[in-house]
Structures are given as C-alpha cells and as structure tokens.
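User: For my dataset I need records formatted as: sequence, then structure tokens, nothing else. Please produce one.
Assistant:
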Amino acid sequence: MDRNIYYYIFQTRHGPIKIIPEPGGRYAVIYDEEHLGSYHSPIAAADDVSGGYTFSPSNGVEFDELDVPSDIGNWEQKLFAHVGRLRPA
C-alpha cells in the first residue's frame, strides 16, 4: 500500500515552526534548528506549540505569544516522503 507522510510548517514573525516525522511514528517540534519536543501526533504537537507547552527555544521566543493555531489544519502541510508498496521478502 502506498502512502504519503507529511510535515507541517507555520510561519511566525520570528521564523517558521515545523512539526516533522521522527522514527517510530512520532513527530518533533523544530524551531530555529532546535528539537523542542516529541509527540505521538502532529495534532498534539500543534496544540502544545500554540499553548507554549514545548521546551523553550534558546533564543527566548515565547510560542504562546505568537498566535500559533492549535488546529493543525491551519498549518501548511508539505510532503515529507512517499512510501511505495513494499514487496514481500
């Protein structure tokens, strides 16, 4: 079965915040090249970013002051990878 894997990006006035897939089906919050937390879904990650509940970026930006939406549907969705059908061994 073919499937697409996506990552999400939200542009703030202080630069983009990304939610990207990690090994094991988890999603990482990345900002300014820093890993700010690992989540079981992109929905959970977006919710924590919007409330300012991730680890704090070293540059002092406060996510809860950036009007980041908690609804992942308001983030830009981009293709991360396309996984094609695997053949049996």
